[in-house]
Amino acid sequence: MKKLLLTVVLAVTMVRSFADEGMWLPLLLGQQVYNDMVKRGLKLTKEQLYSVNKASIKDAIIIFGGFCTGEIVSNEGLIFTNHHCGYDAVATASSVTNNYLKNGFWAKSKQEEIPSPGLYAEFLTKIEDVTAEVLKAAEGLSGLDRVKKVTEITTEINKRYSDEATSTIARVNALFKGNQYLVFVYKRYNDIRLAGVPPESIGKYGGDTDNWEWPRHTGDFSIFRVYMGKDGKAAAYSPENVPLKPKHFLPVSIKGIKDGDYAMIYGYPGSTNRYETSYGIKQKIDIDNPTLVKLRDMRLKYMFDQMKNDAAIKLQLAADYASIANYWKFFDGESKQLIKYNVYDQKKATEAKFQSWANGKPEFESIFKDWGAAYDAWRPYSKHRMYINEGIFGSPLLAYAASLQQLENAIVQKGSSEAIKKALESAKEARTELMKSENKASDQNIVAAVLQMYYKDVDKAQQPIGFYDGVKSGYGDLNDETTYKKYAASIFANTMILDNAKWDAFSSNPDATVLQADAAYAVASAFLKNWQGKYLQYYQQFNLKNTEFGRLYLKGIMQMDTVKAKKMYPDATFTMRVSFGNVKSYAPRDAVKYDYVTTMKGILEKYKPGDYEFDLPEKLIEVAKKKDFGQYIDKQRNDLVVGFITTNDITGGNSGSPVIDASGNLIGLAFDGNYEALSHKISFDPVYNRTICVDVRYVLWCIDKLGGATNLINELKLVKQ
Question: Which residues pair with 183 in a beta bridge?
């Protein structure tokens, strides 16, 4: 560990550069950062935050399912995370008869808890610095050669630190755009069970209207439990397994919060790009974000049309719809905030200073000239790429059809019967999943719309040769919406993918000619092969150059000002980080000031009976109107606090992260950012940035008063004074 602290110069000596900006590596907190935390109100020692040999807060924080954060809140492995993090697992466990998504679910005993196949919890056990080993292996290399060598050496390191027998998994992570490498070692547990979740009308209260907005009244939480074998080791699901005995769990405070209170968030923020260039900002604002938003808007419209009047379809599409909608609004807001706060101009000013320093230094002086040329070469094809990923393959049917290319290749290349069999089995498994989630009505409308949008928006010279000529000759005018509706109807009516009898006949005798002639595969293949054969190479070339220039630019930045370099923190990379700040109200615009909490009063004010986003369970209304808030009441307000905001720096992946007070107690769960600061992935705003959290008292009230699951409450270590 001593060697690690000596070698990680950047991380150890960091100090804060702005108000509450920074996602710090908690295992590598330097004294200056820790002192700053204490000044803001922290009452814990560094060893209580992180310790190698003793239980500490980091031992209660988990990677939940590979996409969210969770926290252990009892000595029996109970997990709190967000409702939207457990959403897919709840939807999978639900049926129209037992609709846990709609009605909620509360296990009154461990025997009632529901297995969640595919979910897992990972606990961080250690990190080590492997920068010297990686950089030595990659010395003198650039571009694809460097990427291959780094991949090779990091794969070797991962194998060295991993141990399948003990469920130990290692992942080398590149920090500071490849100027530093750390290996993170985790213990994985695969037996995760659903213990409780509120009805969707609580867990998603406010829906898309309130998404990324404050004030917020969403009960965004779900409860799971992690199990282990009787021998104390990680194990696959078995009825014989027992609840995990964690090294540490978070006590839960129901004391309440005040404006200005210290707040700390542990978790796994997914990705940021705070060192993005002006070229990247322009690309986002001009092409990437508006194209993505336009395509997702279309997809959501057709999905919602089918979901709003049919409970079974809503359940079928719920998880996909929520995932698409979340970042549809995010990227729309991101563009607006990047423009509003003149981030492009700020980046240009920073780059001008760098260029002045870089002149005369061969390694750095031509970075921006060459980088600009790389963007210029890529930009003409960038909208096409968005249309492939978010448009053509935004259709579940076409995305699945495209995956059959592997099967086609196995057949055409006259591979061994074993290779064909393997490809076919994979295709069958994927088709089974498609058939469970496929809603033909919405998907058919998506296909019709995206084919027309692609025709209008993508450079005609880049479109698949002959494809639209065929549509025109068979179905009509290419500027007529009816043409595409008829064509999409034909695809869905004739594809063997959606016809069990035709699929079974093909599967019994897989033939490339039959596959190539299939209505859906012909469409998917036309776009996929056109993209792969002509334009994918431009993206790959750009990506290599963008990665290389990014690494060199950051290397130069740290050399240009060594004092400032010590204040830098690495971008989020889905590795454990801690951010700290305070509970804090804010004024987003003239004559408007937002309080730091929301209450049950606000929930009832927003209530709209039967509304898709603002309906409420009858029991909540009944109990709330009686003001039966029990020990969870906020005495100062004589109400139940539902949510609160802090100044912490988080991003996607922090969903479900614990919000922890100065003494190490859980006070809430982070679940969102605010619209006024949606540029946070690229540019943190020290004035308006807020993290939106569900108050743990509302979580406990729902469990206790609505769910009647006092068994779960009794597991917790409640802090009342």
Answer: 128, 172
Does 220 qualify as catalytic in the annotation?
yes
Q: Give the angle subtended at the CA of 675 by the CAs of 696 and 599, to the nearest 5°.
A: 35
Residue pointed to by tokens 């092409």: 287
Structure tokens at 506: 């093909």
What angle, 0 to 180 degrees and rounded to 10, lies between the N-to-C axes of helices 519-530 and 440-457?
Answer: 40
For residue 403, how many C-alpha atoms fall within 13 Å in the half-sphere facing its CB?
A: 17
For residue 686, whether the previous peptide bond is cis, meaning omega lies within 30 degrees of 0, is no
Amino acid at 191: D
Kindly tell me the burial class for residue 234, based on how many C-beta atoms sit within 10 Å of its own C-beta (0-12, 13-18, 19 or more).
Answer: buried
Q: Where are the alpha helices (DSSP H) in 387-480?
A: 396-403, 405-412, 417-437, 440-457, 467-475
What's the distance, Cα to Cα, between the start and end of the chain in Å? 37
The 10 Å Cβ neighbour count of residue 152 is: 12
Reported as a single tens digit per residue, the pLDDT across 466-521 is: 999 999 999 999 999 999 999 999 999 999 999 999 999 999 999 999 999 999 99
Question: DSSP assignment of 539-600, as one string?
Answer: HHHHHHHHHHHHHHHHHHHHHH-HHHHTT--PPP-SS-EEEEEEB--EEEETTEEE-SEEEH
Are the C-beta atoms of residues 39 and 60 closer than 8 Å to each other? Answer: no
Told to judge if 655 belongs to the known catalytic residues of this protein, a careful annotator would answer yes
Inter-helix orientation angle 311-340/289-307, to 10°:
160
C-alpha distance from residue 406 to each of 412, 425, 528, 680 (Å): 10, 11, 12, 39
- For 596-651, give the DSSP string: SEEEHHHHHHH--TT-TTT---HHHHHHHHTT--GGG-BTTTTB-EEEEEE-----
Answer whether 77's CB lies under 8 Å from 244's CB.
yes
Q: How far apart are CA 624 and CA 668, in angstroms?
A: 20
Is residue 595 annotated as part of the catalytic site, yes or no?
Answer: no
**Other C-beta atoms lying within 10 Å of the C-beta of residue 443:** 27
**Cβ–Cβ < 8 Å for 495, 397:** yes
**Which is the catalytic residue, given 74, 83, 84, 116?**
84
- Model pLDDT, residue 414: 67
* Active-site residue (options: 74, 655, 657, 683): 655
Torsion angles phi and psi, residue 648, rounded to 5:
-65, 155
**H or E stretch covering 524:** helix 519-530
d(CA 335, CA 472): 36
Question: Could you tell me how far CA 578 lies from the centroid of its own chain?
Answer: 17
Would you give the distance in Å from CA 311 to the centre of its chain?
26
Over residues 630-656, the pLDDT tens digits come to: 999 999 999 999 999 999 999 999 999
What's the distance, CA 114 to chain centroid?
Answer: 24
For the chain, how many residues are written? 721
- Mean pLDDT for each consecutive 10-residue tract of the chain (721 residues)? 37 42 84 88 94 91 97 98 96 93 97 97 95 96 94 98 97 96 97 98 95 96 98 96 98 97 97 96 97 96 92 87 85 93 96 97 97 98 98 97 95 81 94 95 98 98 98 98 98 98 95 96 98 97 96 96 84 96 95 97 97 95 97 96 97 97 98 94 94 98 98 98 82
The per-residue b/e assignment along 84-108, b for 16 or more CB within 10 angstroms, e otherwise, is bbbbbbbbbbbeeeebbbbebbbbe
Question: What CA–CA distance (Å, rounded) separates 527 from 93?
Answer: 36
Q: Are 82 and 222 in contact (CB under 8 A)?
A: yes
Q: Which residues contact 556 (CB under 8 A, 6 or more apart)?
A: 354, 357, 358, 361, 363, 364, 367
Q: Which residue out of 220, 661, 672, 685 is catalytically annotated?
A: 220
Nearest CA-CA partner of 84 in 191, 205, 189, 192: 205
Contact 621, 59 (CB under 8 A): no
